[in-house]
Specification:
Keywords: Membrane, Transmembrane, Transmembrane helix. The protein is mainly α. It is built from 10 helices and 3 strands; from the N terminus they run ααααααβαααββα. A 3-stranded antiparallel β-sheet has the order 1-3-2, with helices on both faces. A hairpin with a 2-residue loop joins strand 2 and strand 3. The longest helix has about 40 residues.
């Protein structure tokens, strides 16, 4: 008989024992101590078979345990004749010992299987992060890591550069409207264009430090635009420029500032927020440029 046959037989035996347990629970079957001893020995043998398979023991061990298990299963059907040979009461303690051993071997085998599964998982993970036939671990000095950093550098620098062009334009419009203490809506337009990042709660950069500075910039921008909105009169507006943000064109309009007791103070407060926002932005830009310069990927011929 081949090994597959034995394993199928093990499944059938286990199913039969479960059925007997159900019969015992409903009172349809009352096994003697001798029957329980024989079944426990068989269970122990099958547990040892499973342990042998996990420990890569030879077929002789597995075949021996299988034969012993089958013999004791057969003996469990001949207990009436065996009762005449000896007192079955002497098997009470051996039966309990064998049952405990069977449970112990089963739990031990489960532990070995779990440890093996964890080990195989770790080896599988390791195999995905080795980069050559010598199993050399990938580091930040590897070609793959350097290429990834170059791609991130290009993406993040382009994001900084494109937003910085917008900010430089808006600063020019600030100088124009401040001469007459009026207001332009360019900062509000930029604020609206950044709404996607607020909705997703994800900054435009991969670098955590850059995103922290971006949110500082955005916080001051939010405060400033709220004040500008409250101070702007809807009448007497006119277009002063066109600006491109994220490849989309927007009109920049000048608004007459409302006049009340606190308007001058609020106007100054709004531009204080703009000043703080620009400080955060300039720090962000400085870190980004320094970082990307070190990678040697940036062409500064077009930097303003």
């Amino acid at each position: 008989m081949n090994n597959q046959y034995y394993r199928n037989f093990t499944i059938l035996t286990g199913t039969a024992i479960i059925i007997l347990a159900i019969f015992r629970a409903i009172g349809a079957f009352s096994p003697s101590i001798l029957v329980m001893f024989c079944v426990s020995v068989a269970a122990l043998m099958y547990s040892l078979v499973d342990l042998s398979l996990e420990s890569n023991r030879g077929k002789k061990f597995i075949l021996t345990f299988d034969i012993i298990a089958i013999v004791f299963l057969i003996l469990s059907f001949t207990t009436k004749g065996m009762k005449k040979l000896f007192s079955i009461d002497v098997l009470i303690i051996p039966s309990e010992v064998v049952t405990l051993l069977a449970f112990g071997v089963v739990i031990l085998t489960i532990g070995i299987k779990d440890r093996k599964a964890i080990s195989e998982t770790i080896e599988s993970i390791k195999s995905t992060i080795y980069i050559d036939s010598k199993k050399k671990f990938s580091t930040l000095d590897s070609d793959v890591a350097k290429q990834s950093m170059l791609e991130l550098a290009n993406y993040e620098y382009n994001t900084v550069f494109n937003l910085n062009k917008v900010i430089l334009e808006l600063k020019k419009y600030d100088g124009y409207v401040q001469q007459s203490s009026s207001i332009h809506d360019g900062w509000s337009t930029l604020f609206d264009c950044l709404e996607y990042y607020r909705i997703t709660n994800e900054g435009p950069f991969y670098d955590h430090g850059l995103n922290t500075l971006f949110w500082d910039f955005d916080g001051h921008l939010t405060s400033a635009t709220n004040i500008f909105s409250n101070l702007s009169q809807p009448e007497g507006t006119h277009k002063i420029a066109t600006i491109v943000i994220f490849k989309e064109s927007f009109s920049v309009n000048r608004y007459v500032r409302m006049r009340n007791n606190n308007s001058s103070e609020e106007y100054i407060n709004a531009y204080n927020h703009i000043s703080d926002a620009l400080k955060s932005w300039n720090e962000l830009k400085s870190i980004a440029v320094t970082k990307y310069e070190s990678l040697g990927t940036i062409d500064f011929s077009h930097q303003e």
